[in-house]
Design a protein that fits this description.
The protein has ten helices and four strands. It is mainly alpha-helical and about 260 residues long. The strands form two sheets. A two-stranded antiparallel sheet has the order 1-2. It has a two-stranded antiparallel sheet with strand order 3-4.
């Protein structure tokens, strides 16, 4: 779960200006813009980039995020499982002798101390190696590594990359509540269902309070900054839309005066 402290005042002011310019009710405008904002938040939540690298021109998450997530999962897993065709007895001998190996060509040689020749063992080693905050793996100098078979590793990676989008699904309840565009909630996210999130919309005394929550277990550090980026993106979009409305109104007034 992530608790983000962000400044929403500039966005609230931008929504109010947009509402006045468009002669629309503020409550409706807040909800509409909240829906668009949720699309931005989905786009900056991993595997989306923290600077909006995987955000489309319309502010939603694009397919590069899914590919980025799959690549990172595959690389993380490969980094802790060097593969071998050697018989298990021979591999046990390597472990006892302290033989050092590289899991990938870019990693350093370390003493691997375990064997994972079943899917259950792969999962066991992988879970131990994962950082509790980010979900990324840590080799720990070989302590969190295990020898495995190439075909077994490939099958396990194929299974694990299907988890891409789990963090983002925590925003789906908010997306449904606020009417986020379907194009900003792609199938690789919605396949995980709407578990792990919440949203409330409270109106009264001339104000609308929108709260969105994501209760997923794994989150990177710096989510405050990511969400603030999403707010700035929506604020900029609103200011541009407001300017366009005022420009159209000015031109319409000129035409009426010219009659």
């Amino acid at each position: 779960m992530v608790n983000a402290k962000i400044d929403t005042r500039p966005l609230e002011e931008a929504v109010a200006e947009f509402s006045r310019a468009g002669r629309k009710g503020l409550d409706g405008a807040m909800k509409d813009q909240g829906g668009i904002l949720v699309g931005h938040v989905i786009a900056i939540t991993p595997p989306g980039g923290k600077r909006g690298e995987a955000m489309s021109e319309r502010g939603g998450i694009d397919l590069t995020a899914k590919k980025r997530g799959e690549s990172r999962i595959a690389a993380d897993i490969a980094a802790i499982f060097p593969t071998t065709k050697a018989p298990e007895a021979e591999v046990q001998g390597w472990i006892r002798a302290g033989v050092k190996v590289k899991a990938t060509k870019h990693s350093r040689a370390v003493h691997v101390r375990d064997i994972a020749f079943t899917t259950a063992d792969l999962k066991r080693v992988h879970q131990v190696a994962r950082n509790r905050q980010t979900g990324r793996t840590r080799a720990m100098g070989g302590d969190n590594m295990a020898y495995t078979r190439s075909n077994l590793l490939k099958a396990y990676i194929r299974q694990e990359i299907k988890r891409v989008g789990l963090l983002n699904r925590g925003w789906l309840t908010a997306a449904e509540t606020l009417g986020t565009s379907k194009r900003n909630t792609p199938a690789w996210i919605t396949r995980h269902g709407r578990q792990g999130g919440a949203a409330t919309v409270l109106t009264g005394r001339g104000r609308t309070l929108i709260t969105i929550s994501n209760f997923q277990a794994w989150f990177p550090s710096g989510m405050d900054g990511r969400i603030q980026l999403a707010l700035r993106r929506r604020e900029a979009g609103l200011k541009k839309a407001t300017e366009a409305i005022l420009e159209r109104q000015a031109k319409a007034a000129e035409r009426r005066m010219g009659r």
